[in-house]
Write a structure and sequence with these properties.
Number of helices: 3
Radius of gyration: 22 Å
Structural class: mainly alpha
Shape: rod-shaped
Number of domains: 1
Distance between the termini: 57 Å
Strand content: under 5%
Length: 126
């Protein structure tokens, strides 16, 4: 279960980093990116966030299935099974909330406030 959780966290972190790096590149570039380029990092980030959420849910399903197979003497009485379930549900909720937040706040295809559109070779542009 812990290996699945680490994998889920790694995928979520990678998705978050890709999305934030794409936003950084957008703000650092002097001209507006074409819509396809502007949304490429968002699409990849959403794929990683979805993969992280999927890994968390698959591991939760596998963990619960494994616990059902154990007999009463095989499971220690003091062993708590709910924390792993709660952590995986939390990871899934974080992934979905991040994906919704990134999708709703995506403004990369629109020009920045002081941005001008220029034609390559335009002598007016420094």
């Amino acid at each position: 279960m812990l290996a699945w959780q680490r994998s889920s966290i790694a995928l979520l972190g990678l998705g978050f980093a890709i999305e934030r790096f794409g936003l950084f590149v957008h703000f650092e570039s002097s001209a507006s990116l074409p819509p396809i380029d502007a949304h490429a990092s968002l699409a990849v980030a959403l794929l990683f966030l979805g993969a992280g959420a999927s890994v968390a849910l698959i591991s939760l399903w596998q963990y619960r299935r494994f616990l059902r197979e154990l007999s009463e003497p095989e499971l220690p009485q003091t062993y708590m099974t709910w924390p792993a379930t709660a952590i995986n549900l939390l990871l899934t909720a974080i992934a979905l909330a991040s994906a919704l937040w990134f999708s709703a706040s995506d403004s990369r295809a629109t020009p920045l406030p002081n941005e001008t559109h220029s034609i390559p070779g335009d002598p007016k542009r420094p």
